Amino acid sequence: MAKNHRSDRSPTDPVSRLAPGTVLGRLASGPSRASRITHTEHLPPRAGRHAVWPDRIRSEVVAAVQECGIEHPWAHQALAAEHALDGDSVVVATGTASGKSLAYLVPVLSTLLDGSEAPNGRGATALYLAPTKALGADQRRSVKELSQPLGNAVRPAVYDGDTPFEEREWVRQYANYVLTNPDMLHRGILPSHSRWSSFLKALKYVVIDECHTYRGVFGSHVAQVLRRLRRLCARYGASPVFLLASATAADPAVAARRLTGLPVVEVADDASPRGELVFALWEPPLTELQGEKGAPVRRTATAETADLLTDLTVQGVRSVAFVRSRRGAELISVIAQERLAEVDRSLARRVAAYRGGYLPEERRALEQALHSGELLGLAATTALELGIDVSGLDAVVIAGYPGTRASLWQQAGRAGRAGQGALAVLVARDDPLDTFLVHHPEALFDQPVESTVLDPDNPYVLAPHLCAAAAELPLTDEDLDLFGPATEDLLGQLEAAKLLRRRTKAWHWTRRERAADLTDIRGEGGRPVQIVESGTGRLLGTVDAGAAHTTVHEGAVHLHQGRTYLVRSLDLEDSVALVEEANPSYSTVARDTTAISVLETDVEVPWGEGRLCYGSVEVTNQVVSFLRRRLITGEVLGETKLDLPARTLRTRAVWWTVTEDQLDEARVNPEILGGALHAAEHASIGLLPLFATCDRWDIGGVSIPLHPDTLLPTVFVYDGHPGGAGFAERAFHTARTWLTATREAIASCECEAGCPSCIQSPKCGNGNDPLHKRGAVRLLTVLLRGAPEEKDGGPSVPGEPGEGVREPSVQVAPSGGGPEEVGPTPDPAPRVPPVP
Length: 836
Prior knowledge:
7-stranded mixed sheet, globular, alpha/beta, single chain, 7-stranded parallel sheet
């Protein structure tokens, strides 16, 4: 819970004497350090505006809030509470640490207190949904603290995969504030709704925290899970009010309506005070090393972040370093611990790693150590990004742009939550987007956060949820509007596939297996792979099935709790990777190849003689090898072949073509055509996260001098998820702006022939060969001359952005294209057949 006035900082904490500018000055004081700061943004402090709680809030709840040191609410908190009590679904979209938790907790607790006095029945209930277990556990602590003066009237309980089975029955029968996540709602609560009937019958509020995280395929799944929840609540006579919260959302009411399917009121005028934030953009220096094709290589963001975390810890500054990968988080903590041990052995124990895949007891212990101040520094993945109240943090280091401006501000907001000044440092990776941003700060600081992109009508998403809904309660014609316009056609296909059967006026689930198991709502494609220590049989953790080919293949280096392991074997059939402890002097990076074919073109727009297209494609991907890279420097030591099966993905893509005349105008002859297309593809993938709520790993691309389906030189960029995630569609809508930024990023890079900062990709299946930097610039220049002006976000596509029309296609085109960069490894073919 955000604390409006109180600070948990110890008065003896040495950090309390250091302003964020002073901390940054010390970080930049080493040799050549100052030149690494490309821009510093100062966000001034802001005064707060108070209000009074609505008079319908119970006096006991107001008193409990005051006992926590909060005399008066901020104006936006009072307004959100008023809407909630009026029965309006509402989204609170104010800044980080603005007290959004209190805005929804106060009306919820007041209603629960009213319900506890009901003469009959269970009384009112509330459901809280968090995208991560860590956030759910943190919120339970806050609710218990706030509701302690209310006695037994409020009974909060966590119900997730970590909840012991012996506690689950108590939660179902007695808890009136249940904290869970969309995964458990999908797999555990909704399929067993009869056991939850008394809870659902009394459900007054559904709280959806950090709602901006529900985007892409995951967000589309959650949207359908929420529609299933609303349907079952109606069955039991309930119509809960939805309360949503997000510190970083554009058009929050629109996004919330798309997520819940209900009209939502927006509260976005932030009345909370804010301490000074100093935000520095930091570019690691060039090294004397040479990368692929002799390209210059910068020092890695991992090594630079480890140095900064070490320096912050030595200063006594409580800090979190956010890292994009699990392996990166482990590596940064190991490097920092080693360097701190050289200064003071006791300091080494005050830095740790935090990531998904840890066992529950490990995560809880780390969270508690961070809360208590026992840990000074933490290298964490986004598992710690969302909303966890860690009062007293003073600095955040972000190792590489996290993919969206929304995530950037979310991570930066972890510091300064007690109202003090804070420091945030974005350390650029050797990557086109990161390099572009540290030299174009206006793209970060002068632009709003991205619109949330999700598509609940994606048939790969909708079909399995229709099956799950039918298994929960037979589907009727009255349900068609609830699940969207594609429902009626899909029901017929599901019936033809013998997954559903129509009897009289309803569709019934026909199988013995659980319908909820048809899909993984996070789009991870299958059960997680268990990582087992071969010598002892000890379970170290898990990795998502979709990432197993690239992260725990034979020979991969795996880090866990500061220890390094080598993967000896990967058994895909049993979903087990056997590892043994080792100490290699390198890290590993998987390489893959990709082919693509056009299934259907939904829309085609002339760009001069060229064409910009959007439609359905089939992508075939295979991990073929891995590179060994020296730690710290990133120098390539060698490549090892792998023998893993290919996987096929049907998804959505945007692609553009050029003609022979355009090639002549751009002075791109056949000898350099492949390299020019390839370079443009790499850079465009790197820059797309500026225009869609995705990151580089959500999308993939292929470029081919003569594609068999278009019969022209073609560049594809596609969603790395079955059925699409809305990212390629967003790319289509913003193509002129997106490709203009791509051209500028390549042209402005100081390298001679291309480097990781502009056109090289760390995942290129062809080893970044061929690439032609100048050819890419000339080609994009000619293409953009014919681009039409963008109106209302881009060229016309059926439906609104993020809500593209879905016409299921069963056409199968011959595979074409060449192996290039790919985003997430495609999932296996879906088990629900009637989707494209």
